[in-house]
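Dataset card, provenance and construction

Sequences and ligand SMILES were collected as paired inputs. For each pair, a complete structure of the chain with the small molecule in place was predicted and serialized as structure tokens. The example below shows a pair involving nicotinamide-adenine-dinucleotide. Curators did not alter the output after generation; any descriptive sentences attached to a record were derived from the structure itself.
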Amino acid sequence: MSSKQVRIGIIGTGGMAHNHAQAFTSMRGARVVGACDVLEDRVSQFAAAYDIPLATTDADELIGHRDLDAVCIVTPDSSHAGLALQAIHEGKHVLCEKPLAVNYKDAARMARSAKREGIVHMVNFSYRRSGALYRARKMIESGALGDIRHVEASYLQSWLVSKAWGDWRTEAQWLWRLSSQHGSRGVLGDIGVHIVDFATFPVGPVKAVNCRLKAFRKAPGNRIGEYKLDANDTAVIQTEFANGALGSITATRWATGHANSLNLSIHGDRGALRISLDDDYNRIEYCTGRSTQTAEWKTAKVRAVPDLYRRFVKGIRTGATAEPDFERGAEVQKVLEACFKSDAEDCWVRV
Ligand SMILES: NC(=O)c1ccc[n+]([C@@H]2O[C@H](COP(=O)([O-])OP(=O)(O)OC[C@H]3O[C@@H](n4cnc5c(N)ncnc54)[C@H](O)[C@@H]3O)[C@@H](O)[C@H]2O)c1
């Protein structure tokens, strides 16, 4: 392992950037040396809070900085592709927020470019920090569940109803997520991307989808100031997996009573498992063997896995595989693309 510290720059210093900064500033082997935001006050305050020497409103300055090894892209979705391609071109390692891009073409281009330049590239599917998810994948691979028949996955939020995270009517960080013109692909692009990754990581690839998206009316004229509220806020995806299983994957901002819940149940002809991140990231429930006759469930506490920030730094320092990578980000984006097509054309679409 290289003894050198990995020098990181963070682009976009809004809500999620604090997670990045907290993770890297508390990690041995990493140092945040630069921050960039289009809002000068915001980036100055951010840099002061985390003792970051360089604060700039110029992304070119940060990305081109000689003393930088890696960048985190934590800007709204529509700017990910441009910034990532620029950083890759400069030879920087990249941790990009999800969704990797706003369409498959851009995501695939980012993946190809990152591979070609040989940099470490990751997409921040942050719920991959669940040890239970890795155990689920192992159980399926080992045949403990038999042939998978049925899958139910949901990501439930309620910030359109609850003010627990602030008031979406007045805060830009929520309003851009509701507006196509501001680069959002709606709840499907925002959290649907997480739950598609979460379901398909253990179950395997998706073969076809039949998706219904809906943007409920939320304000007079469905507009607040410059924000036209047209991006979907509920997604229901009927899913056929390549292994033959059928299932449903849902994502919504209208799940009153749930702040941020991810749930996954996987049922095979010999056993079943379920994960709820509300309970514990490292807890899994399963029903296998004779218990399948009585529908009795057991609970196991499983080993934690490193979070994605640690994997990123380790990948840079040691050359270890850092996943989920851009290729995976693009694969998930392809499923989303099929969902948008299915909704628009009201039919099943092969992925
Ligand atoms: N992995 C996760 O679980 C997770 C959670 C929340 C958000 N996110 C992702 O993180 C990204 C940012 O989300 P957020 O909630 O922090 O949004 P936010 O609106 O709070 O912050 C975005 C920041 O980027 C700045 N910005 C916009 N364009 C820029 C540009 N071209 N260059 C530099 N700065 C720019 C804005 O001024 C703002 O400060 C989104 O892609 C979102 O999907 C991921």
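Derived descriptions for this record:
The chain has a mean pLDDT of 97.
Residues 211 and 339 are 5 Å apart (CA to CA).
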